[in-house]
Amino acid sequence: xxxxxxxxxxxxxxxxxxxxxxxxxxxxxxxxxxxxxxxxxxxxxxxxxxxxxxxxxxxxxxxxxxxxxxxxxxxxxxxxxxxxxxxxxxxxxxxxxxxxxxxxxx
Length: 106
What we know:
The protein is an all-alpha fold. It is built from 4 helices and no strands.
């Protein structure tokens, strides 16, 4: 169950990163509210997952999901630039997430 909560927390990190971008520096109300609510739920789920997962594993997986997800949303939704080196970097983050999951005792 901790892994499911951690995954959901990572997805919410993607939501708040995207909505923060859409908030234009917290000058737009709706995206600003979405950002804050998604942050709160993301942190709460991360905290619950950390009850049974090691700190390093939980935090690395959470930030990795957020980083790779934000990169994907930036490219696919916002039209941000992508090149082979940036894609390779994202794949290395995914590889790190997989290794953390596989090597975790929980």
